[in-house]
Amino acid sequence: MQDQLTKTFQAVKVESPVDQIINQLRNLINTGQLKPGDRLPAERILAERFAVGRSYVREAILKLEFYGLLKTSPQSGTYVSGLSIKVLDNLISDIVKFHKDDFNALIEARYYLELSAVRLAADRRTADDLTNLRTALVDYEAKVANNTDAVEEDMLFHLKIAAAARNPVIESMMMVLIPDLIKNIVENKICGTDRGYRAADEHRAILKAIDRQDVKAAEAAMSTHLDEILQLSKTGQSAAQLIAK
């Protein structure tokens, strides 16, 4: 009897700040305090009210924008979309679960999305793109050399590639996928403790191919960079099992 009862217990899920923000916005919509068409307060005000950094607010808004639940105008601010409250509630629930339910599927999606992004970046990059990529790479290498957390610098390097692709849909999708994945992979050392140094070499190879506008070489370099985590995901293990390796 005791064993059966124990088996019914489930791990406690700790919500990220982004998920908490999204859930609070959902509650405001469900209670009618936020209605379709209403304008949200500015990011600075939201960050103060939620007592979190603006980056968390920005990420939450970005995810909701990506799914069409919020709309942002540079001139007038961010608004709740015109969808019904019932549809908004269901979609927000799916967004909160999106990056948790199938870690392996997200890795696979990121792999093929990044291959597309780097091909386009190699073909379309500008001098400014190269400058941005070199800056991101230098920042990443500096953190790795000092043995300090380089999660944000890693993320920025990949996002600069997406920006160089000159495809707003790909860039938006990358901005949704990459932050959660890189944080999980790097912070939990899924690919090993020396991954930062190897990734720096791989980043250099990717940048070199983009600089030469060698589309095939850029794709091959990105494939090499992401192959290790892709192969781990193909084992069918959960994120927790991958972390335990």
UniProtKB/TrEMBL annotation:
PROSITE patterns: HTH_GNTR. Pfam families: FCD, GntR. It comes from the Bacteria. Gene3D superfamilies: GntR ligand-binding domain-like, Winged helix-like DNA-binding domain superfamily/Winged helix DNA-binding domain. Keywords: DNA-binding, Transcription, Transcription regulation. SUPFAM superfamilies: GntR ligand-binding domain-like, Winged helix' DNA-binding domain. Residues 15-83 form the HTH gntR-type domain. GO terms for molecular function: DNA binding; DNA-binding transcription factor activity. InterPro entries: GntR_C, TF_FadR/GntR_C, Tscrpt_reg_HTH_GntR, WH-like_DNA-bd_sf, WH_DNA-bd_sf. This is FadR family transcriptional regulator. It comes from Mucilaginibacter mali.
